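Q: I'm writing up a methods section and want to include an example of the input and output format. Could you take the sequence below and give the corresponding predicted structure tokens, formatted cleanly so I can copy it straight into the document?
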Amino acid sequence: MFSAKKIRMVTAAFALGSAMVSAGIAHAQSVVVRSTGPSQAQYPKGKKLAANARVTLKKGDRVTVLDKSGSRVLSGPGTYTLDGQVRRDQTRSTRVAGFLSNRSTRRARTGAVRGAGNSLRMSGQAMPSPNLWFIDVAKGGTYCVANPATQILWRSSVMDNATGQLSGQNGTAPIEWRRGNALKSWPLDAVPLTDGGSYQINVQGMGGAQTVTTRLLGNVPDDLDQTAALLIEKGCDTQLELLVTTLEASDGAIIGGGE
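A: Here is the clean output for your methods example:
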């Protein structure tokens, strides 16, 4: 027999556990990161959806939602419950973690280009950036900077040596890559990174000068949905598109034919 004291302790522990689970569910959410079709106005980019929300789509709708577990592409017609069920094997999980990491200084110094995409880069085929926080020197726009001290300038082709110039309001610096190297550390001493700063990047063979605006984030969220929401808020559309495309490739097929 349990004593009255033990019963009270078990009851209190159960209540505390339930409260913690409820709190976790209350804070879980999804965010719409891409939307096309008749229901686009109902599910615009940036819309936040509560845990277990039901999404009803019409024929021709295609909505990509992202939560802390990953992404799902919902295709209408149908009704879907956002229950956070995204399955990703260990290899895919490792790749996603590397894609989101902002610790890239050592790789930039060594110039190593590793992984399955290396042969494609060396063949000259276009490859998406392998890291969310790299600045693609061939694409202008607004970029969110997770950590100025580890900011990387990235090029998609590594077949040849390349040279160029980075200039901003407070300085100018030459930039160059050796054959086989895709990464270059941002020259902070010569060209400081500032929030809202505008920079021109002109690299040989990269389609001409590109204008880049930087937004310094300070703290980067841990969850994917919060990261996506922050990219949307700051207007970092190139990185948002890269995030969505990368997660779609990692998390599997389009979900169609809902309830």
